[in-house]
Structures are given as C-alpha cells and as structure tokens.
Amino acid sequence: MNDDVTEDWRARAEAAEAALEQAGAAAKARIIRAELKAEAVKAGMVDLDGLKLIDAGELQVNEDGEVADAPTVLAKLKRAKPWLFGGGKSSSAAASAPKPEPPRQRMASEMSRDEWLNARAALLKRR
Prior knowledge:
0% strand, mainly alpha, 127 residues
C-alpha cells in the first residue's frame, strides 16, 4: 500500500515539475516577444509583423529579465531588410497633440437666430 501511495506522489510531483517547466518556457517566450516589440518600435519598424522573421529560439533572457541581444538582432534585420523600417516613424508611435488655441467668442452675426436667443438668455441669466 505504501508503494502505491509513493508512486502516486511521485507521478504527481513529476507532472507538477513538467507543468512548471512549460509555464517557465511560456513566460520566457512572452518576455522575448515583448522585448523584441519594444526594441522594434525604438528602431523604427513600420510593421511589427516583421518580427516573425526573427528566430526567437536563439535569444536568451538575462537575469534582469531583458533580452541582451535584441538591439543587435534588430540591427542585423534592419541591414538585411530595410523596407521593414521607416524613416524613424512607426505606426505604433503616439501622435503629437494639436497646439492649443485660445477660446474665441462667436459674433452674433455668425449665429443662427436660435443660437443667438440661447446665448442672449444665458448672458442675461449671469447678470
């Protein structure tokens, strides 16, 4: 009976270790993809689908959780396939905000009769 319990626990431990290894490998793959995406945006990659051309299996994650070779790999890709990279702009970059303009008062001649009546009523209400 003890042998059966021991075998059961041994099988459970092996299954848990296998699941842990799979989870670690999946986490490492996600870290590599995220680091490559960040470096690709910095390098000016126009379409992040170009990352599929990189063999991520040869990249390693260091103890800080960063892919140390990512800039080098992307520099090689940029030399080999320059059309994947734009002139410094990326579709992932945020657009700049428009310049603020001071509020401008509308003239009565620009308003319809209903707009003028509403504006007049609001102005008289404030007095």
